[in-house]
Amino acid sequence: MFDVPFALLLGILVALLDLIPVVGSTIVGVVVALVALTVSLPVAAATVVFRLLEDYVLVPRIIGRAVDVPALVTVVAVLVGGALLGMIGALVAIPVAAALQLLAEEVLYPPARPGMRRTR
């Protein structure tokens, strides 16, 4: 479609490195953008825009739905966790955010009767 060289190899590289949370996507995004730059600047820009949309819109929504945390909270949690504790902080940020959200819900909106769990 865009005549990017080594498209199949780049696709396999993207699939493998996307399995590494946080940094995998960044590394492969830079590699793909540099290869796409050999075609033209608009193609490189399109790949960068696609990666950013995937990393900051699509992935947080999917992860947020999986752990029932809003997408914005997911993005902020990963950024704060990464800034505070590096890679480990970014990896544990989403489970910590989910636990904090659950704790806040239980404290702010306790079940109606003792022993009863609140349904969503």
From TrEMBL:
<keyword id="KW-0813">Transport</keyword>
<protein>
    <recommendedName>
        <fullName>AI-2E family transporter</fullName>
    </recommendedName>
</protein>
<keyword id="KW-1003">Cell membrane</keyword>
<keyword id="KW-0472">Membrane</keyword>
<feature type="transmembrane region" description="Helical">
    <location>
        <begin position="27"/>
        <end position="50"/>
    </location>
</feature>
<keyword id="KW-1133">Transmembrane helix</keyword>
<comment type="similarity">
    <text>Belongs to the autoinducer-2 exporter (AI-2E) (TC 2.A.86) family.</text>
</comment>
<keyword id="KW-0812">Transmembrane</keyword>
<feature type="transmembrane region" description="Helical">
    <location>
        <begin position="71"/>
        <end position="104"/>
    </location>
</feature>
<dbReference type="Pfam" id="PF01594">
    <property type="entry name" value="AI-2E_transport"/>
</dbReference>
<dbReference type="InterPro" id="IPR002549">
    <property type="entry name" value="AI-2E-like"/>
</dbReference>
<dbReference type="GO" id="GO:0055085">
    <property type="term" value="P:transmembrane transport"/>
</dbReference>
<dbReference type="GO" id="GO:0005886">
    <property type="term" value="C:plasma membrane"/>
</dbReference>
